[in-house]
Amino acid sequence: MWDQIVKSLRKYTYIYDEIDTDAAAERIKASIWFKGPNAWILAFAIVLASVGLNVNSTAVIIGAMLVSPLMGPIIGTGLALGTNDTDLLKSAAKNLLVMVVISLLASTIFFALSPLSLVNPTELEARTSPTIYDVLIALFGGLAGILENSRKERGTVLSGVAIATALMPPLCTAGYGLAHLDMHFFFGALYLFVINSVFIALATYLMVKYLRFRTVSGISPETAKKRRNLISTVLAIVIIPSIWSAIVLVGNNDYERNVRSFVESNRIVGSSYIYDYKVEGRKVRFSFAGEELSDSLRTDFFEKAAAYHLKPKSITISEHNFGLTQKEMESMMKEVTTKADEERIRYDSEIEALRSSLDSLATRLQTLEAIQDQADSLMVTTDAPEEI
Fold first, then answer.
1. CA 350 to CA 358: how far, in whole Å?
2. Does 94 fall in a domain?
3. Are residues 57 and 21 in the same domain?
4. Does 72 share its domain with 179?
5. How many domains does the chain have?
6. Where in the sequence is the domain holding 47, given as residue range(s)?
7. Which of 85, 167, 284, 305 is close enough to 216 for a disulfide, judged by CB 3.0 to 4.6 Å?
8. In the Cβ-directed half-sphere of 190, how many Cα atoms lie within 13 Å?
9. Residues whose CB falls within 8 Å of the CB of residue 65, separated by 6 or more in sequence, listed in order
């Protein structure tokens, strides 16, 4: 039984018959060069992606990633390491540097000249805090990329890999950081680019070994050990900060969810209420409207917050009276509650009306089906030959 399962798995997972490693190596070597049309295409794609980031347009960013020829030198580096090709490694590293310089120059010039200044640059900020999840995306995207390069019949996988691994937006964001002298954007985005590049190259290296690409030259055991140690050190340096960033991200998400749940359950405090709150990392500022909170109400508020894992030291209370008396505040709150109830009743009545309409339509449909059945039976009776 187990042998049959293994044979079935091998039947569906065996890939060597569909792989041409020699042709793949030649394609990868030809794609590492950044000169002539490739250099201009890269610059144009960088500007296109920068425009998308500047206006928060995801569609434009995706289009730019499809146009750009960024993955060539990175995959070439992994191929060079896997096949012990020193000359290819030097060429790939050189062209990778050229690629980064062209990208940073194009994006920096664009953002320096762009008159548009975003109040909330979400697309840019999304590229400044890489986590372990970006490592996984780059690794598995790289595995898919080198496997697609190695197929005899190539499909559209490379386009998806280019979008998923997102090499271009981090370089554009780094250019934004340079143009505005914002080192948070520059180093955060550059770190994301390094993560993507290192783990795409690692995925290529692993798949080149697995697919048994032809090696250019042999290396001594000592050299192989040094290379493995170097690769392990680079991976550790790159991956450890991303793990910490992921831990912080998960913790911040949990904290924000706790704040939201706490506010939903404790919006009204005495004769005041929380009209707004702002979460920054593991700290929250609550904005109150109404009468000033007494010491007992503050103590009770902090005790309830502690039940949601919100420590008093992380809470800031900002109180605003707005010049309203307690009666005026109670009247306003009652009016808000009344309007909310009216809206709920209105929505309930609209939903009930829609349900009635649907029931009526269903009844009419059943009637029409019954009439159709009768008509069909009459037609069959009419068409039947008369008995002699």
1. 12
2. yes
3. yes
4. yes
5. 3
6. 17-218
7. 85
8. 16
9. 45, 49, 162, 163, 166, 167, 168, 169
Question: Of 289, 345, 265, which is closest to residue 337 (Cα–Cα)?
Answer: 345
Helices 157-165, 58-67: axis angle to 10 degrees equals 120
Last residue of a domain, one of 218, 239, 270: 218
Residue bearing tokens 């994006």: 107
Same domain flag for 192 and 316? no
Confidence of residue 388 (pLDDT cuts 50, 70, 90): very low
Indicate whether 213 and 348 sit together in one domain: no
Q: Which residues lie closer than 8 Å to 16 by C-beta, 6 or more apart? A: 211
Tokens of 23: 């042709």
- Is the per-residue pLDDT at 108 higher than 90? yes
Closest to 62 in 3D by CA, of 133, 167, 150, 140: 167
User: Quick check: 34 and 98 in contact, CB under 8 A?
Assistant: yes
Q: Are residues 38 and 124 in the same domain?
A: yes
Distance in angstroms between the alpha carbons of the first and the last residue of the chain = 69
Instruction: Say which residue the tokens 């992994």 belong to.
Output: 78
User: What are the distances in angstroms from CA 53 to CA 61, 236, 331, 336?
Assistant: 7, 30, 46, 39
In a domain, 36, yes or no: yes
The answer as to whether 299 is a domain residue is yes
Tell me the CATH number at 265: 3.30.70
Which of 129, 97, 61 has its CA nearest to residue 197? Answer: 97
- Residues with Cβ within 8 Å of residue 236, at least 6 apart in sequence: none
- The pLDDT confidence band at residue 109, using thresholds 50, 70 and 90, is very high
> Do 147 and 207 share a domain, yes or no?
yes
DSSP string, 164-176: HH--HHHHHHHHH
Q: What H or E segment, with its residue span, contains residue 25? A: helix 21-30
- Are 178 and 186 within 8 A, CB to CB? yes
- pLDDT tens string 270-284: 878 888 888 887 889
What single letter denotes the amino acid at residue 166? A
Tokens representing 167? 């090499």
Q: Give the pLDDT confidence of 331-362 residue by residue, as tens digits.
A: 666 776 777 778 888 888 888 888 888 778 77
pLDDT digits (tens, 9 = 90+) for 286-327: 888 777 788 888 889 998 998 888 888 888 888 776 555 556
Q: Is residue 108 part of a domain?
A: yes
